[in-house]
Design a protein that fits this description.
By secondary structure, the protein is of the alpha/beta class. The chain is built from 13 helices and 11 strands. The strands form 3 sheets. A 5-stranded parallel β-sheet has the order 9-8-7-10-11. A 4-stranded parallel β-sheet has the order 2-1-5-6, with helices on both faces. Strands 3-4 form a two-stranded parallel sheet.
């Protein structure tokens, strides 16, 4: 049984097949490929795009999606083994995974990291524990990676650029008032290098580099794909000649769990906002972001409203790639 926890576990060829199916579904959105099938969507954190696109996507394929928010409208969950459950959680993931596997054909989970201890969070143990105890495919709706977003980003790029290999992409850190999850940045790095792009990771200083497991996986990807990975702390040279700028803000991992200390670092870097001046350095480059985005904090109004901004295309494509993913995981005829 195959899960979708991280694209690290999926071959480029299998990801290509997903993207090709997604493109066909975009042309013909409605079918009954998943009639009588169901998915449980477990949200431990808020969402707009992910929830809407999974619910609607399942409906467009004839199936049913059930949204559960543990701790709000469903019992709070405990994920640790051997814990004496005398805290807030009423239900252990072992039973929750077992029960939902009896009812549903797939389970998806959004579980952001705790922002307390990166040495623990980097193990991505919540979704891995769910996958261990589920007897149906498990989908990652964002933990320390966001593989569905990766698929949507790549689908959007291929629509606009055609072949993406050897095209220059800048994955830029952006300003934001507080440290955010590294998931989308990790995922953008994984996907772009897997598809052979020449990627520049632009961040203010080495403390903003991504976790070694993702930097190493990206290097491994480039060796297989013929792409490149360059780290830069220089805005002008990083943007120069780029064909695609992907923006995300994230926290400095050495300061993980210490936002007040991280602020002393972060407060110097408001100028990492994506604006027209920076985009003018690119080779008529496209821009995108996973959304949600704070305007005039991460990117200016002018960038978000420009014809080169693909953020809405990317958000739409979440719907198509996730439908392709659900059909593929359940072996539904394409
Ligand atoms: N990009 C994304 O996952 O959006 P939501 O947080 O709204 O689901």
């Amino acid at each position: 049984m195959k899960h979708f926890l991280s694209t690290v576990d999926w071959s480029k060829q299998d990801l290509e097949s997903l993207l090709e199916l997604a493109a066909r579904l975009k042309q013909n959105p409605w079918n009954s490929a998943l009639e009588g099938r169901s998915i449980a969507l477990l949200f431990l954190n808020p969402s707009m795009r992910t929830r809407t696109s999974f619910e609607l996507g399942m409906q467009q394929l004839g199936g049913v999606a059930i949204v559960l928010q543990p701790g709000k409208d469903a019992w709070g969950l405990e994920f640790e083994h051997g814990t004496v459950m005398d805290g807030d959680a009423e239900e252990h993931i072992v039973e929750a995974a077992g029960v939902l596997s009896r009812y549903c054909d797939m389970i998806a989970l959004r579980a952001f990291p705790s922002f307390t201890d990166w040495s623990k969070d980097r193990e991505d143990s919540l979704i891995r524990t769910l996958a261990q105890h589920a007897s149906v495919p498990v989908i990652n709706m964002e933990t320390i990676v966001h593989p569905c977003q990766e698929l949507a980003m790549m689908m959007t790029l291929r629509e606009r650029m055609g072949a993406v290999a050897k095209r220059k992409m800048v994955l830029t850190w952006t300003w934001h008032p507080r440290p955010l999850n590294t998931a989308v940045a990790n995922s953008a790095l994984l996907m772009s290098t897997k598809f052979g792009m020449d990627v520049t990771l632009l961040c203010p200083e080495p403390d903003y580099l991504l976790d070694k497991q993702f930097m190493d996986a990206a290097q491994t990807n480039t060796a297989a794909s013929g792409g490149t990975l360059t780290v830069s702390h220089d805005i002008e040279s990083a943007y120069a000649g780029a064909e695609f700028v992907y923006a995300k803000s994230w926290g400095a991992l050495p300061y993980y769990g210490r936002p007040d200390n991280e602020w002393e670092l972060r407060k110097k870097y408001r100028h990492f906002i994506v604006n027209e001046e920076k985009m003018a350095l690119t080779n008529n480059g496209f821009f995108s972001h996973c959304l949600p985005l704070r305007r005039n904090i991460k990117a200016s109004d002018e960038v978000m409203d420009a014809s080169y901004c693909l953020a809405l295309d990317e958000a739409e494509n979440r719907l198509h790639v996730q439908k392709a993913l659900m059909m593929t995981l359940l072996g539904a005829p394409a």
